[in-house]
């Protein structure tokens, strides 16, 4: 049997992020190449496979891999990697909107960070959960405790998006626009076109929430062509934004446009646009279109509770 090479393991790490389904196909084949003499490589492979399963939203595989990590011979190596493990489990819970579980796993990891950057990244993840739990003040306290100057450009861009979303939840719409615009500039520096276009959508929503029609027009100019290339599912929200912008300028709302807003409002809230959508309707005196009962996004409950308990006894 040909052993697994370091180059193959490094390539697997890349695949876990860029082509997670392919990584999951390779995972059992690569694992079969490793015997008890290669415990460190086994742990690295398992942890990258967790990332692949998370990115592929393959939750049955995620649970199976977590169970594999419980093997006794892996624990000495895993002792130094509990931060990465618990953080990835926390992210998986967040992806499933199992937010209390995500919070508990992130909190378990707080004392395990080996660097300021790791701690900052964890605080960002925990802040996301508090915002989704509709505790934006706690989320802002966490995000504001981070020294953004210590962050890499890539992490700072993501941090700025999350900070903007928290500011939206606090109804600090002008500040949210500023934070999103910083992320926009950083994504241009990184040549990350997909993320630049995604954050443009955040800017458009926040600009209308804060009644910045000039900023809306500036970022809206080329956006329709961009979302056709990268984000086709954004078209309904773009139509919503254009209707809101037009209504803010004219002071009126056509019957046809009102029907569209009524049809879309609940689905947009479900997609996570609750704060800007509510502000938009308020700005055009159409709060009667906002649903009376708004529930949080529902989780699939795809993961059993306390997956990280073997590495965090307090769970």
UniProtKB/TrEMBL annotation:
Domain of life, per lineage: Bacteria
InterPro entries: TPR-like_helical_dom_sf (IPR011990), TPR_rpt (IPR019734)
UniProt name for this protein: MalT-like TPR region domain-containing protein
Lineage: Bacteria, Pseudomonadati, Pseudomonadota, Gammaproteobacteria, Alteromonadales
């Amino acid at each position: 049997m040909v052993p697994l090479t370091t180059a193959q393991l490094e390539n697997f790490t890349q695949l876990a992020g860029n082509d997670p389904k392919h990584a999951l196909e390779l995972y059992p084949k690569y694992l079969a190449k490793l015997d008890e003499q290669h415990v460190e490589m086994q742990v690295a492979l398992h942890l990258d496979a967790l990332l692949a399963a998370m990115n592929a939203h393959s939750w049955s595989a995620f649970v199976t891999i977590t169970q594999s990590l419980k093997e006794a011979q892996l624990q000495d190596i895993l002792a130094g990697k509990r931060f990465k493990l618990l953080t990835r489990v926390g992210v998986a819970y967040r992806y499933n909107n199992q937010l209390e579980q995500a919070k508990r796993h992130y909190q378990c990891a707080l004392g395990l960070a080996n660097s300021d950057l790791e701690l900052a990244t964890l605080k960002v993840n925990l802040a996301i959960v508090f915002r989704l739990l509709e505790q934006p003040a706690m989320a802002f306290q966490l995000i504001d405790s981070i020294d953004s100057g210590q962050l890499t450009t890539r992490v700072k861009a993501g941090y700025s998006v999350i900070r903007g979303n928290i500011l939206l939840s606090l109804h600090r719409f002008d500040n949210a626009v500023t934070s999103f615009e910083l992320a926009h500039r950083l994504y241009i520096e990184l040549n990350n076109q997909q993320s630049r276009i995604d954050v443009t959508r955040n800017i458009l929503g926040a600009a209308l929430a804060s009644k910045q029609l000039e900023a809306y027009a500036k970022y809206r100019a080329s956006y329709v062509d961009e979302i056709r290339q990268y984000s086709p599912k954004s078209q309904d929200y773009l139509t919503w934004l254009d209707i809101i912008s037009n209504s803010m300028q004219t002071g009126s709302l056509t019957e046809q446009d009102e029907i569209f807003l009524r049809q879309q409002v609940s689905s947009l809230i479900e997609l996570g646009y609750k704060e800007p959508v509510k502000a938009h309707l308020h700005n055009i005196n159409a709060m009667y279109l906002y649903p009376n009962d708004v529930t949080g996004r529902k989780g699939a409950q795809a993961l059993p509770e306390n997956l990280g308990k073997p590495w965090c006894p307090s769970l």
